[in-house]
Amino acid sequence: MSSVLYDTPGPRAKRRNVIFSVIFTVLLVLILWWVWRTLDDKGQLEWSLWEPFTEAQAWTTYLLPGLGDTLKASALAMVIALPLGALFGISRLSDHRWVRATASTVVEFFRAIPVLLLMLFANEFYVRYSDISSEQRPLYAVVTGLVLYNASVLAEIVRAGILSLPRGQSEAAMAVGLRKGQMMTNVLLPQAVTAMLPAIVSQLVVIVKDTALGGVMLGFTELLNSRGTLAANYANVIPSFIVVAFIYIVLNFILTTFASWLEARLRRSKKGTGAVLGGDDVDDINAGEVGGTATIGTGGKK
Amino acid sequence: MFDFLEGYNVLGAFWMTVKLTALSAVGSLVWGTLLAAMRVSPVPLMRGFGTAYVNIVRNIPLTVIIIFTSLGLADIFGMTMGAPDDFDVQGFRLAVLGLVAYTAAFVCEAIRSGINTVPLGQAEAARAIGLSFSQILRLVILPQAFRTVIGPLANVLIALTKNTTVAAAIGVAEAALLMKEMIENEAQTLAIGAVFALGFVVLTMPTGLFLGWLSKRLAVKR
């Protein structure tokens, strides 16, 4: 689509593009050169700071356990939040006004609050009202915060997933005489779950990124927190940041790619209704989805 | 009943949240638009840079970026943000820098998807009357694109408001940091949680309602 904005470059446009490329390259190189020189001045490029990453110890003592905790918290949060989200999402579609209103209020409330506040609150709550050991508490607090926030986001994903199905599905279910519950469990949910899969995988990226908050604010020993311990040991601030950022990028890139692959596959598939919730819809739902729910679920069909 | 609020500057903390949000919003709008322009530009190198930037930054946790501004940019690169001695001001500016760097990637994607909703004929007509790439973008595409992306941009703004709490990680005295302090020292856990939760509902809800109304009003009728 972007190529519509300009013609196939002729001789003059080609020359101009080359000039722009050169200017841009020079700027980039200047910045990189400054970065390189500062790092060199500060001794951050010394091989001794990078060497730990080629040996097993830095990985087995710090990075892998940290990554393990990140994945553990993310997986737990997703597994607990999914059924909760499904419950609230379906409640928002209920025929009874008070069920709808209660579910909507809860969902909108938890979506409007930063996940960090939820984590801090959960942590303090466990300090005062539970006997969870202080080693386990950060994990509990992080997972609780993530569950409260993500259940409300997943509720919206479930709702949007069900709403994205063509009307004919529920009309046909009613026509053959299914009850409301049967219609939901036998007709709508199975199709909605398929449509939601890419969105759920995209939401995992958000969860993985949010675990890092617990590492800094609550001392949860996830990847970013382990970076601190590692850097304190080897005094390699910049190398450890680069390696940790790289791990996050690879992990999230795999998840994003998997989500787009699922989305593309569902769109291509001849079976089913073709309704899909993709990554773009997830971005909107996470933020608060100002444009109204009408646009959700049509993400790729514009 | 609200005794626990005494001795704490709750309004001041929320004012800090508002300042963080406002400055980061302006910064990321500018940088994000530039990135979007790069991503659709005819120069392959700029396109590559824009794509790489967005894909890298979107996949790194904001917390990592914010911590890096303090431990990396300030400590190693000596970027004191014009306030080498005042650590409050320095932390604030570093947090804004981190938030801009992160949010711009989302602004860029919102604007790029807005550019994609402008019908083909608009760009073709603009090219047919001989406008250059920057003229097409400035006079024809972006004015229409901005109107369709108000909704998505409002979403980014609300997410940004919530994301400013991450600045607590480098000690910026905004709402989340004050809540952490209060909730540890005062007995009314639930009441404190409710006050701060309400504060964020008050901050995000009017933004959402106003911009939602605006996006409907300005929507390009096709």
From TrEMBL, chain A:
Any one biological process term the GO annotation gives: amino acid transport
Major site of localization recorded for this protein: membrane
Gene Ontology molecular function, alphabetical: transmembrane transporter activity
Cellular component GO terms held in the UniProt record: ATP-binding cassette (ABC) transporter complex
Compartments, record wording: Cell membrane
Residue ranges of the TM segments: 18-36, 73-94, 106-127, 139-166, 187-208, 237-262
Highest taxon in the source lineage: Bacteria
NCBIfam families named among the record's database cross-references: HEQRo_perm_3TM
Full protein name: Amino acid ABC transporter permease
Organism of this sequence: Streptomyces dioscori
UniProtKB/TrEMBL annotation, chain B:
Predominant place of localization: membrane
Subcellular compartments: Cell membrane
UniProt keyword annotations, A-Z: Amino-acid transport, Cell membrane, Membrane, Transmembrane, Transmembrane helix, Transport
Domain of life: Bacteria
Coiled coil: none
Membrane topology according to the record: Multi-pass membrane protein
One annotated GO molecular function: transmembrane transporter activity
Keyword Iron-sulfur: no
Chain ranges passing through the membrane: 12-38, 59-79, 91-108, 152-178, 190-214
Domain called ABC transmembrane type-1: residue spans: 14-211
Pfam families documented for this protein: BPD_transp_1
GO biological processes: amino acid transport
The keyword Glycosyltransferase is annotated on this UniProt entry: no
GO cellular component, one term: ATP-binding cassette (ABC) transporter complex
Similarity remark: Belongs to the binding-protein-dependent transport system permease family. HisMQ subfamily.
Identification of the protein by name: Glutamate ABC transporter permease
Native source species: Streptomyces dioscori
